[in-house]
Amino acid sequence: MNYRRAPEHLFPAAFDDSVAATKFFLQNAEKYNVDRTRIGISGDSAGGNLAAAVTLALAKEKGLPKLKTQALIYPVLQAINFTTPSYINHGHLNSLSKDLMVSFWLWYLSNDLSFKKVFEANNHTSVELKKSKYARYVDPEMVGVKPVKKGNLKFPKIPNIATILDPRFAPLMADDADLNGLPPTYVMTCEYDVLKDDGVMYAKRLGKAGVKVNHDHYQHGFHPFLIHFYVYESAGTAMENYLAYLKKNL
Q1: Nearest to 195 by CA among 77, 56, 70
Q2: Contact, 216 vs 187, CB < 8 A?
Q3: Annotated catalytic, 86?
Q4: Does residue 78 contact residue 48 with C-beta atoms inside 8 Å?
Q5: Contact of 118 with 155, CB cutoff 8 Å
Q6: Which residue stretches, if any, does this entry annotate as coiled coil (predicted)?
Q7: First to last CA, the chain
Q8: Which member of 45, 95, 97, 114 is catalytic?
Q9: 220 in helix, strand or coil?
Q10: Cα–Cα distance list, 122 to 14, 96, 144, 149 (Å)
């Protein structure tokens, strides 16, 4: 999907383009000899963000054929907490570092990197927000880790910061009620990936909301190892499992 990209085009340009393209295809599937009852959406990394956001948005649309499934490959899902265990343990990796991931978020949000260190230190959100329902959506205890308690910190005023709570921008921020009724979902996560916990938490929240979830976690995987399916045996296995899921669920 050739959506408009950041930083030349800020949020919600990529989201809007993705929604428009998906709706068009659902409404005109027959023109392309496609069964509209067997259409799903998938994406990896930033594409996983858009796939999840589009699925949430279209679930509220009336008069559209329903997506049969969504498949999210190491998706980017939240920008509220950069101190999850996977960010702490794997933020130094060259494949996708914490430094680079924060830059990606800021390019999408505002194309202003002046607050980069603030985001990296997790000081971009207020004490109140850190105690809100949104913080519970990114709870380290969901991945088996007790959160570290920190004292109150001063935080700067950041333009457009409320956007990080918008599910169109960060799908993990969707309310539980909005997760209920989403189509069967496939989530792939990799151990050596700052985004691992995002995917794990989304899979768990979807499951608790009653969504049928298939979660494949690759202990030796890294971001974005699926594109190396012809090099690494584990990536080849991951590709086979991903395709098998699609064949079974479309």
Answers
A1: 77
A2: yes
A3: no
A4: no
A5: yes
A6: none
A7: 19
A8: 45
A9: strand
A10: 25, 18, 20, 13
In sequence order, what are the residues at sequence separation of 6 or more whose Cβ sits closer than 8 angstroms to the Cβ of residue 62? none
Look up the CATH number of domain 20-249. 3.40.50.1820
Segment-wise mean pLDDT, segments of 10 residues, the chain, 250 residues: 94 98 97 97 98 98 95 98 96 96 98 95 90 88 59 68 97 97 98 98 98 97 93 94 98
Q: What amino acid occupies position 49? A: N
Annotated domain spans of the chain:
20-249
pLDDT at 151: 45
Task: Read off the amino acid at residue 21.
Answer: A
Within 13 Å and on the Cβ side, how many CA atoms surround 78? 27
Residues in the chain: 250
As given in the structure block, the two tokens for residue 144 are 């088996």
The pLDDT value given to residue 204: 97
Query: Which two three-digit tokens encode residue 121?
Result: 């230190």
Q: Which pLDDT score, from 0 to 100, does residue 150 have?
A: 52
Give the model's pLDDT for residue 127: 86
What is the layout of strands, in order, in the sheet containing 213-222? 41-44, 70-73, 185-192, 213-222
